[in-house]
Write a structure and sequence with these properties.
mainly alpha, 91 residues
Length: 91
């Protein structure tokens, strides 16, 4: 996906795409997890997105690096999470 009309590498484009996805998912996570009153009093530094989402984003970045497998390497064990496998992509 090209966000800007530039001649940047696929790795750069992937990084921009992942950064946009992280930004969007942060907002959606807050809106879907907390009430307005909770958000007004929330210590945002204490909020954590599910780790599994970052694993997925890292895989997206790894898949664009030269010499990596299409899925970004071996599967990580999913662990015990309520996240449901990761955020939907905004791309």
């Amino acid at each position: 996906m090209r966000f800007l009309d530039t001649d940047e590498s696929p790795e750069f484009d992937a990084a921009i795409s992942v950064a946009a996805d992280v930004d969007c998912q942060w907002d959606l996570f807050l809106a879907n997890t907390y009430t307005l009153e909770q958000l007004r009093q929330l210590d945002f530094a204490a909020v954590r997105l599910p780790v599994e989402w970052f694993i997925g984003w890292r895989r997206q970045l790894s898949s664009t690096e030269p010499g990596t497998s299409p899925n970004g390497g071996p599967m990580e064990s999913p662990g015990n999470s309520e996240a449901g496998g990761g955020p939907p992509s905004v791309s």
